[in-house]
Design goal:
Blueprint lengths: L2 H32 L11 H17 L4 H10 L4 E6 L15 H9 L12 H7 L1 E3 L6 H4 L3 H7 L6 E9 L2 E9 L8 H8 L2 H27 L5 E4 L5 E4 L1 H4 L6 E4 L2 E4 L4 H12 L7 H4 L2 E3 L7 E7 L5 H5 L4 E6 L9 H8 L3 H12 L4 H8 L3 H15 L4 H12 L12
Length: 419
């Protein structure tokens, strides 16, 4: 074989190899970009993902901002935006969400998509696997036919999601991570990585609820000091807690049926409107719930209802069982003063406080106080002089006025724990 023929055959061989290699690359790219309408598979760093999950525990423990860990989780999963929304007991908010979700979430609530969320079809998968994706119920072709994807998600340049199931107390929530069409769907490998940190995220939210529950018990104890009846309501307006003082009203016109606050009188419909306005997410509080509400009962004067929203913003507030507090005043019942409060407020001894309470209950009759407590008249007077000195007053009238201001229920309007 001469030299020219040799080089010609060699060149043909090189071209054949180059053609074969180019064909191989094209096939690979075809399957990566065209055959899969979801874009190029994105890699997840397990360490970054684990750190993001641990931020949820930190937020649950110290009451920090839930948005920061949600932002970290979104970045770790190569997502566009995210929000944590309730699956059970669905309400229009408030939800912890990343800043980039603002416009989409406003549309989700304003346009009623939270009531027509096509992705609720993934609930069986969410309950079974603690994880859900669009692929559990639909493909790219099906998305073209659903208004949820075309009218809601598409204008916000969103298409794919992964829902991480969170069991928080008796409710199911989901941390929804969103991706654009270009970012693509969540692969099986990515889903497996998320499943490994799902319990950590759920634990953080559950921890937040336990801490909030302790805070709510503190509220109940605060009002018990004044024997003030209170009822706590959740986001749906259902009763979550009733203190002992409120329980005493259950035989005097107040009722709780199917977890709803009721009145044995003609004003139940108005009471429902009052509750709905109070637990709504309108800001500021609607006028209907910002003023005291009088509800007539079958016997006795009307009960007086006044409401106060509980603070929302910290991590534990989103998942707490209670959204608002309702104080109920019974004009036919005079509160019984408690000496412990006077001891705390004015640094009285227990005996001095006991004398003051008895004096208040017996309308200032010192001799009746003496008889009731089995102490001499002069002993009562001695205690009262000490009380006057500690309070900086000089008369029994001033003392009774101070006690009335402390213990009368109407004074509670000046109080309001911020938890």
């Amino acid at each position: 074989m001469n030299e020219s023929v040799y080089f010609k055959n060699s060149a043909n061989g090189v071209r054949a190899i180059a053609t074969l290699f180019t064909t191989y690359i094209c096939v690979v790219l075809y399957f990566l970009y065209i055959q899969q309408p979801t874009g190029l598979t994105l890699m997840i760093d397990p360490q970054v993902l684990g750190k993001a999950a641990n931020l949820f525990v930190d937020a649950g423990f110290d009451g920090g901002d839930m948005v920061a860990p949600l932002e970290a989780l979104t970045q770790a999963l190569n997502g566009t935006c995210a929000a944590i929304i309730p699956v059970t007991n669905r309400t229009p908010g408030p939800f912890p969400y990343t800043g980039s979700s603002d416009d989409a979430l406003k549309s989700y609530v304003r346009d009623g998509w939270y009531q027509n969320d096509a992705r609720m079809a993934t609930l069986p998968s969410l309950l079974r696997n603690r994880l859900a994706t669009d692929q559990d119920f639909i493909d790219a072709e099906g998305m073209k036919r659903l208004s949820y994807y075309q009218e809601f998600l598409r204008p916000h340049k969103l298409q794919w999601f992964m829902g991480i199931g969170l069991k928080i107390d008796h409710e199911i929530w989901t941390a929804n991570i969103q991706r654009s069409p270009q970012q693509g769907l969540f692969t099986k490998e990515e889903q497996a990585a998320v499943l490994r940190i799902q319990k950590t995220i759920s634990h953080g939210a559950s921890l937040a609820v336990e801490i909030k529950r302790a805070a709510l018990k503190g509220i109940a104890s605060f009002y018990e000091t004044f024997e003030q009846p209170i009822v706590l309501l959740d986001r749906a307006g259902d009763v979550t807690q009733v203190n002992r003082a409120a329980e005493s009203l259950l035989a005097r016109g107040l009722a709780i049926k199917n977890r709803r606050l009721k009145i044995s009188g003609p004003d139940n419909a108005d009471l429902e409107k009052f509750v709905a306005a109070l637990v709504s997410f309108e800001d500021p509080v609607p006028e209907l719930a910002s003023n005291a509400f009088l509800a007539r009962r079958l016997s006795g004067r009307p009960l007086i209802f006044s409401g106060q929203r509980l603070q929302i913003g910290k991590a534990w507030d989103y998942f707490a069982q209670s959204r608002a507090l309702v104080m109920i005043n019974d004009p036919d019942r005079r509160p019984r003063a408690k000496p412990e409060l006077l001891v705390e407020m004015f640094k009285l001894t227990h005996s001095e406080a006991k004398i003051c309470v008895a004096l208040f209950d017996l309308d200032g009759d010192v001799r009746r106080v003496s008889d009731q407590l089995s102490v001499t008249y002069s002993t009562v007077r001695t205690y009262l002089k000490s009380v006057y000195s500690k309070m900086g007053i000089s008369s029994q009238g001033e003392l009774l006025l101070i006690i009335a201001r402390v213990f009368e229920r109407r004074a509670l309007n000046n109080f309001g724990p911020n938890v």
